[in-house]
Fold:
Amino acid sequence: MPELLLIIVSGMVTVNYLVFLSRIYTGLNRSAKSEVLPESVNYPVSVIIPFRNEAGILDECIMSMLGQDYPEDKTEFIFIDDNSTDGSSAVFEKYKDSRIRLIRVNDGAEGKKHAIEAAVKVAEGEIILSTDADCTHSREWIRKMAASFDHDTGFVAGLVKFEEGKTLLNRVQDTEFASLMITAAGLIRAGEPIICSAANIAYRKDAFNAVGGFSDNIHLKSGDDEFLMRKINRAGYKVSLCHDPETIVFTKPASNLREFLRQRQRWASKGLHYESGSLILKLILIFLFYFLILLLPVLSILTGDINLLTAAAVMYLIKIAAESVVLNKGKNIYPLKAGAGLILFTEILHVPYIV
Structure:
């Protein structure tokens, strides 16, 4: 009887997971037919870039900003030194461009959210673009992100991609992160914004202030992207996706497995603080789907019930097949170059790493 109950529960969470993937697929279908937004009316834009101890990479980021094709009189770049100890601020001494503003967070507060809030307070732009110091951007990034704002839009999520690498870890990270971006894109287009990447987001300053910024999650190390997106959405603003190839932001992958796991652990920790009970329940059911795929084979060995192993195998095959369909659809908006073999390898690793 316990074995039968486990199989029934496994079937239920599998159906739930397929429903979740179907929502993503539906959203991706919409994004393939997405409306062509008009060119921006040249909103005043403030680009916010917090950094800490990144002296070695700031030049590349600064040059990426100064090369933007947006009107200079409508643009400012606010770099926030979040208690650096490596002399990062000295990098700016050679840049005389009036669009560059450097502020320092040294009042005892530290952390990315404090840095961003300090920048928003002094920002003169109507639209805030937020990115990271280890990122590079095409020269059309600001113009096309700003063009995504219509009258009702309060938040725009852009796409992020890892810089190409030749190691297996780099390639697996790129494929796994592509699945996250495709998931984010599909859910936003389906009207269920849940995840996005802080390396490429934009929002109205008025919307940020209207929802209180990060006031209710300032103590959390991460979440300067997703919490804000959902708060702005709940306040009645529209959340949009910008999937123009020229707005994709490139960032560096984790350099080793330990850094990769720490990064993913930090991202996952946000789920414990999500504001919606229904959202938390959805995530728990998805986690249970992954967990049972690992648990059932163990129980099969312990009990000798081959049906449990069969159920796990069926769940795994359904997962791989359904996710492959979604990823293939996601190629319409995201440059996923991985072949079938690499995708399959990443899919196999996905369950144990998630659990």
About this structure: Confidence is low (pLDDT under 50) at residues 32-36. The longest helix spans residues 2-32. The chain has two domains: 2-28+276-354, 41-273. Residues 126 and 337 are 36 Å apart (CA to CA).
